[in-house]
Amino acid sequence: AKQRAAHKERIKQLLIEQDAVLVAHYYTDPEIQALAEETGGCVADSLEMARFGNNHPAKTLLVAGVRFMGETAKILTPEKKVIMPTLEATCSLDLGCPEKEFSEFCDAHPDHTVVVYANTSAAVKARADWVVTSSIAVDVVEHLDSEGHKIIWAPDKHLGGYVAKQTGADMLLWQGACIVHDEFKAKALQQLKQQYPDAAILVHPESPESVVAMADAVGSTSQLIASAQSLPHKKLIVATDKGIFYKMQQACPDKEMIEAPTGGNGATCRSCAHCPWMAMNGLQAIEEALIDASGKEVFVDEALIDKALIPLNRMLGFAK
Ligand code: 13P
Ligand code: SF4
């Protein structure tokens, strides 16, 4: 504990010395989220992280999350130094959508508007007409559908399926999945619901359709926290990364939070839903990145920045 406190103090000092601000996702460890809050940074969903970094005057953004979040920050503010505790923190959606194959897929359907989830590489974003996060995916696709667009959606098949169902839009789906949310199981969730019949079910839309179908609220991490507050239920079963419980419990101190089950055959596996890449954002790694950023600074090819900026700015403009 003493050592952790020392890390935190040192990080606080370094942030000031380097005119840096900590931008953290809800799935990072609670102590990272607390540190971001204490030091004037932010804890947010992926859209709000992008917006915060874009508007903040600091010279350096320290992004505690996964690679695409750091890349998005760099694309939006290339004049800033963007560092991450580790550049190894990737995302199964990003990994499952390589630029070359994706480009071929787009080329094969030239009459489609290309909408990609933020959880993609800069190169994939550069190929897109729109970037969206889970908080605005339905709204953007609804808008495009009303204008008669046919849509290519990548990479998350579950979120894409959910958006298609909500909007009725004509969508071709890339078949990617989040390894964390893909593990939530409807059968086990039904059993848990029988145990807690009064509980509301909150689900991130990267989860399988059968799990989303049981939800009282579906949304991005920020939207799920807002739903936790606004729903009248005193018990909440939550299907997303367990990192969210830190802020959700703070937002609703009088409510009981229950982790949705992962794993097959009705077996529940508590505390399993945690993104291995988000977990790489430790205190020590943050301190080290501030002391020596080599190998931890995010660079994006300039030509890609110019192209990826277009769909990213559309997203920010739409979300206003
Ligand atoms: P949010 O936009 O809801 O924060 O989701 C980002 C993410 O990576 C979910 O796994
Ligand atoms: Fe990617 Fe899933 Fe991890 Fe989010 S939780 S960063 S979607 S692997």
UniProtKB/TrEMBL annotation:
Cellular compartment(s): Cytoplasm
Catalytic activities: iminosuccinate + dihydroxyacetone phosphate = quinolinate + phosphate + 2 H2O + H(+)
The EC number(s) this enzyme carries: 2.5.1.72
Pfam families: NadA (PF02445)
Cofactor: [4Fe-4S] cluster
Cofactor note (record): Binds 1 [4Fe-4S] cluster per subunit.
Chief location category: cytoplasm
Coiled coil region boundaries: none
GO molecular function: transferase activity
Protein family membership: Belongs to the quinolinate synthase family. Type 1 subfamily.
Function: Catalyzes the condensation of iminoaspartate with dihydroxyacetone phosphate to form quinolinate.
PANTHER family referenced in this protein's UniProt entry, alphabetically: QUINOLINATE SYNTHASE, CHLOROPLASTIC, QUINOLINATE SYNTHETASE A
Protein name: Quinolinate synthase
Organism: Agarivorans aestuarii
Lineage: Bacteria, Pseudomonadati, Pseudomonadota, Gammaproteobacteria, Alteromonadales
Gene of this entry: nadA
